[in-house]
Amino acid sequence: MHNWAEPFHCLTFAEREIPNAVIERILQQGWPRFMLFDPVAALHWTRLYVYFPQFQFGLYDADDRLAVLGNGIPFAWDGQVSSLSAQGWDWLIQRGVADYQDGRAPTALAALAITVSPDYAGQGASRSGVAALRMLAAREGLTALVAPLRPNFKARYPLIPMERYITWTTADGEPLDPWLRLHCRAGGRIVGVCPESMTIPGSVAQWEEWTEMRFPETGAYVVPGALNPVAIDVERDLGVYVEPGVWAHHTVAAEFEAPLLTAEAPG
Fold this sequence. Notes:
By secondary structure, the chain is an alpha+beta fold.
């Protein structure tokens, strides 16, 4: 692969496999613990590396250390925003796997995750990950990149509906949220909300383990890292978290230029 990602270099899983232990470690470092227990991900995650190795990648530094783990999935999309599901992330991974298994030709790439190692925070790695996904889409002849984004700062405002949150802007009129702002600066457009992007059920004991909190009674709880409150039902021994996301759309062109990868992420 071309060295698009200076100061990082990009290698897909098809070009260099990443050991499972390394993948597990970077995911555990990069996400709230409960995010690793989505049942849809549990069913399909390993298929990404079997079915779509050309869209799973690592960004490596000059010393060949893994800085970013990127995951994408191609799918057949008609290009209409109205066709993007309210189930966001969960829908995309199921749709991409079904398209592959049924032999449907993909037209777009979906960004599932860009996970930055903590050692590389603030070094432009996230922006390089977005650019790498766009370049991979262009290389495979796909015309769009879509993403059910998880806004960085939304966990600070878990009681604010996502529909309102995405309207908050800086003094310059850009999205207040850094992750949404990065995508807009990279040429993407915010096109809607997926209010049920990921649904994570678990027992009360599991939620207590995942969050290091106690849930003595039934109710809605704000937990660290969650974008919405978690609904705990003590009587049913069930906690359910429904995570909202934000749909972003990038047009992909064959002449897409690599310099996007060298820019720093916005603060």
